Amino acid sequence: MLRNGLEPWHLLIVALVAILLFGSKRLPDTARALGKSLRILKSEAKAMASDDAPPSATYTAGPQPFRAPAPPSPPRAESAPDPAR
After folding, report:
1. Where does the pLDDT of residue 11 fall: very low under 50, low under 70, confident under 90, or very high at 90 and above?
2. Integer Cα distance of 21 and 31 in angstroms
3. 69-79 as b/e, with b when 16 or more CB fall inside 10 Å?
4. C-alpha to C-alpha distance for 61 and 72, rounded to whole angstroms
5. Does position 59 have pLDDT exceeding 60, yes or no?
6. Taking a C-beta distance cutoff of 8 angstroms, is the pair 18, 27 a contact?
7. Mean pLDDT for the chain?
8. How far apart are the C-alpha atoms of 68 and 76, rounded to whole Å?
9. Helical ranges in 8-83 per DSSP H
10. pLDDT grade, residue 41 (50/70/90)?
11. Mean pLDDT across the stretch 18-37?
12. Are the C-beta atoms of residues 1 and 9 closer than 8 Å to each other?
């Protein structure tokens, strides 16, 4: 019964209906708005996909345990030349 879902004459009928509904003056603006909406949808889908990706090695999620700073090391005494020698 159905060979192919979309024949060339189907596209012609869809184009004629679109021109009748929107008019030839508003059709380019409508197509531009549709393209803009599709670009936004595509960028949002990419953003959602990147949110689902595992975090990278440099990113650490959640609170980090508190580490006390290391105590300062005592100053090293520099050895002066021995005057007795």
Report:
1. confident
2. 13
3. eeeeeeeeeee
4. 30
5. no
6. yes
7. 77
8. 23
9. 8-52
10. very high
11. 87
12. no
